Every structure is written in structure tokens, then in C-alpha cells.
Amino acid sequence: MAPHMHIFLFSIIVFVCFISSCCSVEDDVQPNIINNLHLNNVISDQETGYDSRAYPSQFLSSDGLSPDFPKVETGISSYLEKLAPKTSATTVSVKSHGAKGDGKSDDTKAFEKAWDEACSSSSGAVFVVPENKEYLLKQIRFGGPCKAALTVQINGTLLASDDRGDYKKDKRHWLIFDTVEDLLVEGGGVIDGNGEIWWKNSCKVNKHKHCKDAPTALTFYNVKNLTVKDLNVQNAQQIQVSFERCESVKAWNLTVTAPGDSPNTDGVHITRTENMKLSDSVIQTGDDCISIESGSQNLKITNITCGPGHGISIGSLGDGNSEAHVSDVTVDGAKISGTSNGVRIKTYQGGSGNASNIKFANIEMVNVKNPIIIDQNYCDQSKPCKKQKSAVLVKNVVYQNITGTSATDVAIKFDCSQTHPCQGIVLRDVELRAPKDEVAQAFCNNVEIKQIGTVSPSCPDD
């Protein structure tokens, strides 16, 4: 027995040494891989005119991500480990606080009490909404800061009260997570804004009605280290899901739906938010599938299915002569069908600031009215907007590998400011067809443009 034991121990030592040598070799190779990737990026930038180093975010580290933001190579699981409550976490069910879940009784107070218990737990907590139940809710503010990381497990259905009198204190929000850190919201349940009564009373539907605010169904405000996944949000009173003043956000597998004629029901709204990834989501709504507004930077949006709706929009920016800034936005991988716009940048005259370092890539358009559009003369009012000299500068925008069909003859429209023309616009491998395979057209006004590869339709040479 002894000789066999020595042989076994010797085999283990040899195996450990082999693994260690492999790891050291891998460590030696890694810098070369990084250097090659950097060189490839530089070459790609030179070819397209897109400067990956332009307008760097002050929130980024040397690897291009915030220190708190999940790196691609570490995967999703490591990021969730930080957010997941400890094994000693308290489980708090809304049922234990008296929620009936019959779709008729007001369960607002029960949710508020359950949240207070979960938020005050020093060991972390799991806030549970049981499945196969429908909880009728008025406005709720899930406020922080909380003592530890929280998971919100929405398995059932949350149904908004359709009594507009229940929103007198705050006409802008229904459910809002406010000033919370290390938050995971998941569960596969449904958040139903029950918005039909709001749509009927919208000035966009009934011109005789005065324009009034309507609630956003689900708002994340001033939340840091946030993950939102596996949720169904539908029929919002106005905006469906909004991320405002958030940092380090990961959202995926969202299904966001409302009728195509529902007014102002933006699917995912992003404003003043930094370091965010949105992926693998289906958005069908009555306004922008995704809207990105001022103060947002370092956003990566991938694998989106959009339509009906108004497409993916940056803006509107500069309304009311305001200053607006959006930078470092990538939309890579989308199918946009039957929308009034495809990928759009829209700014008001009279504004200032810039929308810069933006890339739209690998997008399929299906019967889209304005597949590619920059509109620096955007006007969203019944009376004509006054012509003004100042404008939000649009700079360094790349459109790459965008194909499909336009529902109108004009498939590409760059309507830029005369005083602040669009700069550094790149079209690379773009092929868009007009209805019935007719020749599509490009409208290009006050734009500095570079066209690479096959571009159809193309802007005329100056």
C-alpha cells in the first residue's frame, strides 16, 4: 500500500505543477492579446472615422468600464454575487404583511410595510411578491438608502390603480425605487400600468384635452449597482421603464409592451445615467422603443427587437434652449420593424451642448419610415418652431452594417443645422431599399460625411 500512496502523491504534485505553468504562460500571453485588440481598434477607427477615445467618460477606468461595472470576461454571475443577499438574508413576503392579491383589494400598505422591513435588514433581504396573484397598487416609493443589498422577486402581477385621483401627490410616478444601492429586481412577473384611462385623456389622443403629466410605470431613480432582468412591463400610463440618475446598470431579458397607438409610452427611457448595458429585450410600444436623453454616457445596447413604436432615439435634446450632453453610446444588434423611425438623433433649435461618439451597428430594418435620421430641427408642438442659430452639436456618429427596407422613399435623412453642421458622420456598409424594391433616396443637408464600402442610398458628393 505504501508505494502506491507515494505514486499517488507524486502524480498530484506533477499535475499541480503542470496547471501552474499553464497559468503562468496564459498570464504572459494576455498583455499581447490586449495590445493586439488595441491595435485593431486603432486600425478600425482610422478606417471609419469613429474615435473610440473621443470624449472619454470621466467615470471610465483604463479598461473602458467603471470600477464598479461588470467586466465582460467575468460574466454576469460574478456581478450578481455582489448584489445577491447573503445566506443569512431575511425573506420578506408581501403576503405576511397582509397583501391579498385578489386584484381588487388595495395592497399598497402591505407592500410599503414589507419594503420597510426588507430595507432595514442589516443582513440583506429578499422582497417576495408571490406568483399566481394580482396585487392592486396605488403609488409606492421604495425608498432608501437600505442597510444591505436587496433582491426584489416579482413573481406575481402588480396592477396599477386606474383611479387618477390616486396620483394627486405625484403625477409622474407609479412605482419608484429611489436612492437604493446594490439592488436586483427579477422574477418573471408582470408590471401592468393599466394605462387605458390615461391614454383616453391624453392631449395626443384628444386634441380638446389639456396636456397633463401621466405616471411612469416603473422608475429607478438614483440607484447604483442595479440589475433588472426577466420582467414583463406592459400598458404603462406613460413611460414604461425609466432609469434616471443611475450608475452601473445591467438590464436584460425585458419584455415591454403597449399598443402601437398608446401615447408617450416610451419603452425604456434613459436619462442622466452612466455605465449601463441593456440587452436581449423585446419592446413593442406607442413611442420610442428606447429613448436616451441628456446626461447619459457609456451606454451599450445589444440584441433589441423593436416595433411597433418610434424606434431607438437619442433625444430630444436642447428643448427650451437647454444645454444637453450625450456621449459614448453603442447600439449593436437590433431588429426594428414597422416603426416611424429606425435609429434617430433629434435635437431642438436653440439648444447647446453635444451628442457625440455614437455608433449604430448590425441593425436590420423592416418597413421602417425613417431608417436613419438626424433631425437638428425637431419640433414637437402644434405651432411652428422659431428658427434659431444655436444648436446641439452632433459629432462622431457611425452607421455600420445597416440593412433592410424603408417604408418611404427617403431612407437616410440628415437634416442638420446650418450654423452647427453635423460633423464626422460615417456610413459604412449600409444598404436600404425603398418600397417595392424601388431606389431609395438620401437627404443630406449641412453634414460632413464619409462613406465606406457599399452605401445605398448615398449622400451626393459635395
What topology emerges from the helices and strands here?
Blueprint: H1 2-48, H2 75-83, E1 90-93, E2 102-106, H3 108-119, E3 125-129, E4 134-137, E5 140-143, E6 150-154, E7 157-160, E8 173-178, E9 181-186, E10 190-192, H4 196-200, E11 216-221, E12 224-234, E13 241-244, E14 247-257, E15 268-271, E16 274-284, E17 290-292, E18 296-306, E19 312-317, E20 323-337, E21 343-347, E22 352-368, E23 372-375, E24 393-406, E25 410-415, E26 422-433, E27 441-445, E28 447-456
Parallel strand pairs: 1-3, 2-4, 3-6, 4-7, 5-8, 6-9, 7-10, 8-11, 9-12, 10-12, 11-13, 12-14, 13-15, 14-16, 15-17, 16-18, 17-19, 18-20, 19-21, 20-22, 21-23, 22-24, 23-25, 24-26, 25-27, 26-28
Characterize the structure shown.
The chain is of the alpha/beta class and 462 residues long. It is built from four helices and 28 strands. The strands form two sheets. The protein has a 17-stranded parallel β-sheet that branches. An eleven-stranded parallel β-sheet has the order 5-8-11-13-15-17-19-21-23-25-27. Residues 1-81 have low confidence and may be disordered.
